[in-house]
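Support reply, case 0932

Customer input (verbatim):
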Amino acid sequence: MQWIKKGLIFRTEGQHDWMVSHASVPTVIRMTANTIRVYFAPRDTQGRSHITFVDVAADNPSHIRHVHDQPVMSLGELGTFDDSGTMPSCIVRYQETLYLYYIGWNQGRSVPYRNALGVAVSEDNGLVFTRLFKGPVVDRSPSEPHFCASCHICIENGIWRMWYTNCTKWEIVEGRAEPFYHIKYAESTDGIVWKRDGTVAIDYNSPDEAGITRPFVVHEDNIYKMWYSHRKCQGYRTNRAQSYRIGYAESNDGICWKRLDDEVGIDVSDSGWDSEMIEYPNIYKHERTRFMIYNGNGFGQSGFGYAVSAEEHPC
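Our regenerated output:
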């Protein structure tokens, strides 16, 4: 599998006081036959993240048709799990309703932050989302005591299947608390109450690997295919060799996976907006072409861009 990079789509440049920097975790949903909506998280003057979107041409996502001028939901109430920020993770269209699964976070003291997953719904085709609950639907638990974060969800035969990020520990690395996280699997019958039995989908492949996150799953040709981000434990913010790369895995059942990172077919560029790291991939198809929307340097600080598959894929 090989990807051909096409360049930057969007970068936040202080358009609003809530859109000062970053355009993190691009999350795609098709709106019409020819229009793709990309939800993302900009940061405000206080470093809090919000959720908004741009609409782009499906066949050429660098052609921006609309930049939304406000967040699609507010921050959480003071003291709730998402009062410090919200970030999109996955959107599911179910029975004419859009379900937005999002990452909510709080600032911490002993560790920098704590994440959990919330859910909100939209009845106006994604312009405004309303929380179903003030609290998260996937959070710390007796067996998962640290945090849960980005997810991808597919509905198959009435079962909601989730692949999600789970933090396994925090460690002091080079003088600061750093999280270690990999990808687990859960199921639900309603998208709200999730059965988590500890099943690991994508695990660490070496002692120095520390972050595996933002899964995106496609089921085609009787194979489950997952793209995700992975990084090392030391120096990943500033050291190009240690920073995020995009990984790839395959599975026969969506539960037991084989990592095939060497076959992902995309890497950092020699220079420019994605020359230090690439992360948080989201995939869609248009006609016979597969598109990847992804972040580059600074965990989205440089914006998001796209690549197209070198192979044609029948829809």
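We compared this against your earlier run and they match. Two observations from our side: Residues 39 and 97 are 16 Å apart (CA to CA). The longest strand covers residues 159-173. Please reopen the case if you see a mismatch on your end.
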